[in-house]
């Protein structure tokens, strides 16, 4: 059975979809202004009920702290990566290693995982990143320095980059 927990951040409401036993995070939802939007998004991934566990509350606290300007690291042991191919995992790991406040281009990530011509693959993988914030896909920009696309919208991406730059 899947559960979800909606919580507030300095940037709006966010949510975590998870499996309780054993605890595994299935998806992290970026902040938005309406709880109802998150409830609909979690429902699209299958039946889930609201809930909270100490582990999910710890992750919520880390995400809330991120939106207050505190770096966080990917909690690999609790992220369900079972739907990712080895190459997708390598992209997510490369992105997770980008230091707080830094950015990389799609081509830098593609080169870093040994596939320098796979910029679109990197973009597609990050567009489907189930763990934004923990795996900071917002830190990937276009080669020309423009922000590029982002699941949460370009304005949210710019706000997150500005938050990190300020620290």
Q: What's the gist of this structure?
A:
The protein is built from six helices and six strands, in the order βββαβααβααβα. The protein is α/β, with parallel strands linked by helices.
Structure characteristics:
19% strand, Arc Repressor Mutant, subunit A, alpha/beta, 6 helices, Double Stranded RNA Binding Domain
Low-confidence stretches: none
Amount of helix: 25-40%
What amount of the residues lies in strands? Answer: 15-25%
CATH first level of the largest domain: Mainly Alpha
Write up this protein:
The chain is α/β, with parallel strands linked by helices and 167 residues long. It folds into 2 domains: 2-77, Double Stranded RNA Binding Domain (2-Layer Sandwich); 82-166, Orthogonal Bundle (Arc Repressor Mutant, subunit A), CATH 1.10.10. Helices cover 37% and strands 19% of the residues. The chain has 6 helices and 6 strands; from the N terminus they run βββαβααβααβα. It has helices at residues 35-43, 54-66, 86-96, 106-112, 119-127, 154-166; strands at residues 2-9, 12-19, 24-32, 48-50, 104-105, 140-141. The strands form 2 sheets. A 4-stranded mixed β-sheet has the order 3-2-1-4, with helices on both faces. Strands 5-6 form a two-stranded parallel ribbon. A hairpin with a 4-residue loop joins strand 2 and strand 3 (24-32). The chain is globular. The protein starts with a strand and ends with a helix.
């Amino acid at each position: 059975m899947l559960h979800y927990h909606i919580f507030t951040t300095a940037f709006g409401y966010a949510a975590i979809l998870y499996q309780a036993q054993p605890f595994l995070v299935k998806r992290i939802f970026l902040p938005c202004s309406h709880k109802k939007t998150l409830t609909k998004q979690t429902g699209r991934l299958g039946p889930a009920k609201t809930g909270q566990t100490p582990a999910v509350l710890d992750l919520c606290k880390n995400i809330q702290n991120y939106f207050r300007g505190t770096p966080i690291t990917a909690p690999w042991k609790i992220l369900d990566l079972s739907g990712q191919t080895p190459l997708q995992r390598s992209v997510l790991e490369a992105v997770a290693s980008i230091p707080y406040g830094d950015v990389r281009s799609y081509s830098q990530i593609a080169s870093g995982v040994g596939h320098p011509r796979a910029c679109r693959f990197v973009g597609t993988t990050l567009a489907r990143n189930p763990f934004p914030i923990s795996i900071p896909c917002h830190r990937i920009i276009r080669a020309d320095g423009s922000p590029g696309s982002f699941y949460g919208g370009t304005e949210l991406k710019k706000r997150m980059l500005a938050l990190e730059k300020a620290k």
